[in-house]
Design brief:
- The strands form 3 sheets. Strands 3-2-1-12-9-8-6-4 form an 8-stranded parallel β-sheet. The chain has a two-stranded antiparallel sheet with strand order 5-7.
- The protein has about 325 residues and is an alpha/beta fold.
- α6 crosses α7.
- Helices cover about 40% and strands about 15% of the residues.
C-alpha cells in the first residue's frame, strides 16, 4: 500500500461511473467504450472475482464490513489498529463478535478479507529494538486475526537498513516462524515491494528466499501489488504482460503461494522503483492490463483489493464498478 495512503478515511459510494470517465479510459489501447458499457449492464459481481477496497475501521472494526458493502465490494482490506503507535489497546471481544456477525450477515468469507500490517513494522531490521518490537507486533496482529476469525494477514517484508539482503531475509523469516509458534492457523502473507530504498521483496526470488526459510509453508503466502510489481520492473502493461508476469511468478515462487492481489495503477514508469499508487486506468499501467487481470482465471477466488488514492467522482465505489464492468461473461 502506498506509504502516504489517506489512512482510515472512509470511501463513500457516490455516483456510478460517468460516461466521460469511460470515454477518458477508452483512449487507452485495448479498451472500447462499447465493451465497458456492455460489461456494466446488470452486473453486480462477476463469478469467482472478489473485488473490493481497503476500508476504514473508524467507529468500530465492524464498520469495515459496512463500508465495503456501501462500496459494492466483495472483498476488503483493513488495518487492525492504529498505525501511529507500537502499543495498542487489546481488541475488544464484543467488537470482534460484531465484526464476525457483520461478515456473516453480508456474506464475506474470511478468505476474501486481508488485514494489512502496520507501516511501523520492519521484521528485517538490523536494529535489535526495532526487530523485537516488529516481531512482537506481528504476533499481536496474528492474534487479532485469530480473535476476528480471519485466516490471513498481509505485511511488508522489511528493509535492510545497512545490513545484507541475506541477513534481512533471515530475520524476516525468523519473525514469521516465531509468530507461527505463538499463534496457530493464521497465514502470513508477504507483499511484493517496488524496490524503493533498501526494501526487500521487490524481486520474486527475494520472496521465494523468505518462504524457503519459513518452516510451515502452509502458513505463508504472497499478495501481489500491481503498482509495486510494475515499479519493480515487471511489465504487466504490455500485451500479454499479465500472463507473462504470472508465469514468471509461478516459476520462481509458485502460484499456490498467491493469496491476494492489490489493484493499483502506477504514477511512475516501468522500473521506476517508486511506490506511488494511481487510480485504475489513470496511470502508467493502463486499463487494458486491469481488464486482463479481472479476466485471468488464475486470479479466481482470491481477494483483489484496491488501494488507489481516489478523486471526486472516481473513488473506490466507481473503480470497483469499473473493474466489474471489465469482467467478461
Amino acid at each position: 500500500m502506498e506509504s502516504h495512503k489517506r489512512g482510515e478515511k472512509r470511501r463513500k459510494a457516490r455516483n456510478p461511473v460517468k460516461n466521460e470517465e469511460i470515454e477518458e479510459l477508452d483512449e487507452r489501447p485495448g479498451c472500447s467504450t462499447e465493451e465497458v458499457v456492455r460489461g456494466k449492464k446488470g452486473r453486480t459481481k462477476a463469478q469467482k472475482k472478489y473485488i473490493g477496497a481497503h476500508v476504514s475501521i473508524a467507529g468500530g472494526i465492524w464498520k469495515a464490513v459496512e463500508a465495503s458493502v456501501d462500496l459494492g465490494g466483495h472483498s476488503f482490506g483493513l488495518f487492525l489498529g492504529s498505525q501511529r503507535s507500537w502499543q495498542r489497546p487489546a481488541l475488544d471481544q464484543s467488537a470482534a463478535v460484531k465484526f464476525q456477525q457483520a461478515c456473516s450477515q453480508h456474506g464475506f468469507d474470511p478468505a476474501h478479507i486481508l488485514p494489512h500490517g502496520s507501516y511501523l513494522m520492519n521484521c528485517g531490521s538490523p536494529k535489535e529494538d526495532i526487530f523485537d518490537k516488529s516481531q512482537d507486533m506481528l504476533v499481536d496482529e496474528l492474534s487479532r486475526c485469530s480473535v476476528l476469525g480471519l485466516t490471513q494477514f498481509n505485511f511488508h517484508p522489511g528493509a535492510t537498513l545497512g545490513s545484507s539482503k541475506e541477513q534481512c531475509i533471515e530475520r524476516i523469516a525468523q519473525a514469521i516462524n516465531h509468530a507461527h509458534q505463538q499463534i496457530p492457523a493464521v497465514c502470513t502473507v508477504l507483499e511484493n515491494m517496488s524496490g524503493q530504498g533498501s526494501t526487500v521483496g521487490g524481486e520474486f526470488n527475494e520472496l521465494k528466499s523468505i518462504i524457503d526459510h519459513v518452516r510451515d509453508k502452509s502458513r505463508v503466502g504472497v499478495c501481489l501489488d500491481t503498482c509495486h510489481a510494475f515499479a519493480a520492473g515487471y511489465d504487466i502493461s504490455s500485451a500479454g504482460g499479465v500472463k507473462s508476469v504470472l508465469d514468471e511468478f509461478d516459476q520462481v515462487v509458485g502460484l499456490h503461494f498467491l493469496r491476494a492481489v492489490h489493484l493499483n495503477d502506477s504514477k511512475g514508469k516501468l522500473g521506476c522503483h517508486l511506490d506511488r499508487h494511481e487510480d485504475i486506468g489513470r496511470g502508467q499501467i493502463g486499463i487494458a492490463a486491469f481488464r486482463n487481470i479481472v479476466n485471468e482465471p488464475r486470479l479466481d477466488n482470491i481477494p483483489l483489493i484496491l488501494e488507489t488514492p481516489g478523486r471526486p467522482g472516481f473513488e473506490y465505489a466507481e473503480q470497483i464498478e469499473l473493474l466489474y464492468s471489465l469482467c467478461e461473461d
